[in-house]
Amino acid sequence: MDELSSPQVEALIPLLAAFDAAADEGHITRAAQRLGVPQSSLSRRLKAVEQAVGVRLFQPIGRRVALTAAGQELFERTRGLVSALGDAVDVVRSNADPESGLVRFGFPFSLGPVSIPTMLADFHTGAPRIRLHLVQAHGTALVEMVRDGRLDLAVTIPAPDDLPTLILGYQRLDLYVATDHRLATRTEIDLAELADEPFIANPPTYHLRGLVDSWCAAAGFTPHVGFEITEFDTLRALVAQNMGIAILPAPETPHPGLNRVPLTGDRDRSIGLVTGNHRPTPAVQRLRDHIATHAMSYLDRARHRGR
Q1: Which of 126, 242, 256, 295 could disulfide-pair with 178, CB 3.0 to 4.6 Å?
Q2: Whose CA is closest to 303, among 252, 267, 247?
């Protein structure tokens, strides 16, 4: 075979990063920011991809873009190639200069205002040339991003069973109510007593929501969820307005409008430091070692500050 690739493949190779970013983000502006190029340049690259393939790959939906059926098939077949090439380049660069490199790090919504920024600031002091690409998402999404190579490292709640994981500690879940709620003065409460209360919770895709639903089912009732929301700060604000009750981890910063009521029984979930099934670069290993050594002190300080 004389030719290693067709002209179409040769044309696509330098453009795949643009296609991959736009397909993953579903938004031209965010994809351009991710790649560090002007939006106009990214748009030209995407048109070039479509010309090389010979079919339409994107369709506009409001201010976003969505993949066509052909675009989705191309994305599924090429995203692993782009990720593998990125990993290869990262390894080569990091091996050449172990003081620099890129770490794609994820952490959950229920951590962040205190513990994670403090931990990353301390790490940056000791490793100022290592770049951090940060992603905040719920636990299931973070695990999927580590599993398919979009993240190098993540703190997840709970810890997964199928990836290399170091248990950092446990997160306690309690009942939170407004300060003028009828249960605000209780020192402890059983879940069965909450059967008639309106709940505020995360969407069903969140691990915390699934955990609360299963606990309530074991207590003999299905919680009536009046509000579903992804943002923990807004969720706590709604509870403080006496719009409902919630089962939550302790906030990392004090919230004067809330009262914590401990729940009876074992109400903890694990906090894991997760890495993918691949050899970490020196930069990734350095951040992992830092978190493994110091995580509990950061988490404890944030927990006590939030009480």
Answers
A1: 242
A2: 252
Q: Report the C-alpha gap between 105 and 90 in whole angstroms.
A: 14
CATH 3.40.50.1980 for domain 7-79, yes or no, is no
Q: Which CATH class is domain 89-168+270-306?
A: alpha beta
User: Residue 206 and residue 218: Cα distance in Å, rounded?
Assistant: 19
Instruction: Tell me the pTM.
Output: 0.65
Length of the chain: 307
The pair phi, psi for residue 266, each rounded to 5°, is -85, 110
What would the pLDDT profile of 108-159 be if each residue is shown by its tens digit? 988 867 788 889 999 999 999 998 999 998 888 999 999 988 899 999 998 8
235 falls in which pLDDT band (50, 70, 90)? very high
**Distances in whole angstroms, Cα of residue 276 to Cα of each of 100, 148, 189, 212:** 20, 8, 40, 28
pLDDT digits (tens, 9 = 90+) for 208-217: 999 999 999 9
Which residues does 9 contact at the CB level (< 8 Å), separation at least 6? none
